[in-house]
Design brief:
By secondary structure, the chain is of the alpha+beta class. 30% of the residues lie in helices and 17% in strands. It has a 3-stranded mixed β-sheet with strand order 1-2-3, covered by helices on one side. The termini are far apart.
């Protein structure tokens, strides 16, 4: 694999985890990582995000952005 493991940010390594992978990681390497993750986490999905900055928003931030309504 060609992934610099020091640059992977772990958000949650439980089933349904989201992993931020360094930008520019090629598709083949992402597929290899996905296959390896399925071996260690066969009962849950893992979402690999290539090169984007993600953040978790609370209800107040989502409402301010117009994305959340009760």
């Amino acid at each position: 694999m060609n992934i610099d493991l020091d640059k992977i940010r772990q958000l949650n390594i439980q089933p349904n985890a989201v992993l931020l992978i360094p930008g520019g990681t090629d598709v083949e390497t992402m597929q290899e990582l996905s296959q390896a993750l399925r071996k260690v986490q066969p009962r849950g999905n893992v979402l690999l995000v290539n090169g984007l900055e993600l953040q978790q928003l609370d209800e107040q931030d989502m409402a301010a952005a117009g994305w959340y309504r009760k």
